[in-house]
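Page header: ASSEMBLY MODEL / two components / 405 residues total.
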Amino acid sequence: MERLNDEGQWIVLMGFMVCVGIFFLAIIIAQSTVVGQTTSEGVLEFPKNDIQDLRSEMIEIAKNWEQYVGDGEADDIMKDLVTLSMVRKNTVVKYAPDYSSDPTFKTGAMSDSYNSYTRIKIHFNNGVTEYDETFLLSRPKTP
Amino acid sequence: MDESAVSESIGFIIIFSIVVAGIGLVSLYGYPMLLQHQIGADERTMEQTMITIQNDIKLLTYSNVPYKDTALRVSGGALTVHKKADSSQKFNFEWWDNGTWEDLHADFINFKPGELRYVSDQGTAVISFENGAVVKRQQDASGSVMLAEPRWFYDDDTDTLVIFLMRLDSSRALSLNGIGNLQMSRNENSLLARTIEFVDPTHVAVTYDPDTVNDYSQAWKNYFSGSSIAPNGLGPHNGKEYTISNVKRVFVKQYDITITNI
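Prediction written out in full:
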């Protein structure tokens, strides 16, 4: 009888190895259902634009702060800002009921030869992100 | 003597019985195991789906998106909408008025959130979306767990407590098993935003009245007493279990979400 030619045996071995590979891939896919969503959401949820909006509003208000205080509008303006942040952005921003003791807008407290500085404190909290910032708004001194 | 015929039939019997025994073992032990695994996978997929739904509702509410729809697959059970009017679970909010507990606001007495509930057919899991949270329990056990929390918070810089309430509503009874499209819209006209200011900082209490047949009180307990709302959690005060002290203002916002189709 003619001898069997068994040089093709490796095909069977390859098939076996591919099977094992697919098996492990299936395990990995089965484990991966819960991964990956929350991290990307956390990054997306950082309210950069909301903070920038609030910041620019605060700066505009601070520029005219003495005038607002003189006209007796300062309280109303701060209340408006707080209410708008709440209703539109679901955000708590700093509300200072007593401006004389609160350094939210302390004008002229700091100055050098050319500029006087208004200190602006921003507090921002929307439940996910809490953000605090203090910065100095410089204005040239009137000679 | 040549015995090859006999050994061939014996061999056949041996091989055949091995095959039958193999099939028997697989159908006796392997198949139930596979089914069990399938049920577990269905429930896990549903947990994931519920969190996706919660994310969509977050977009609807916090991000002011008016309409949202999601394609989803419900397998191994049914997803049903329980309208706010039909829900038995209730939330109540009170504040400590120097000796008595008073209702926080007339608009939020016995707040009924409604529910989006998944009940597993073969398994025992029940997963719900209620009032912004995804909660889960087992039908044969009394405990429950919160898979995803709502976004209530206390800001200690301004002593402000912020509470978001979400109500689900639908015009008719809706339920889904299989692949479907969940369509939700926010009802702009019924949005309530209320700020309650106190003269002196006081205590505010939250009460959850569970639905007795679908009790998620453990999940809400963990949420209230955990560190999510305030760092030290909500503790007991004068007969109320979950209270937060030193609150100057409470901001409550109530969203109405209508599920138009599923």
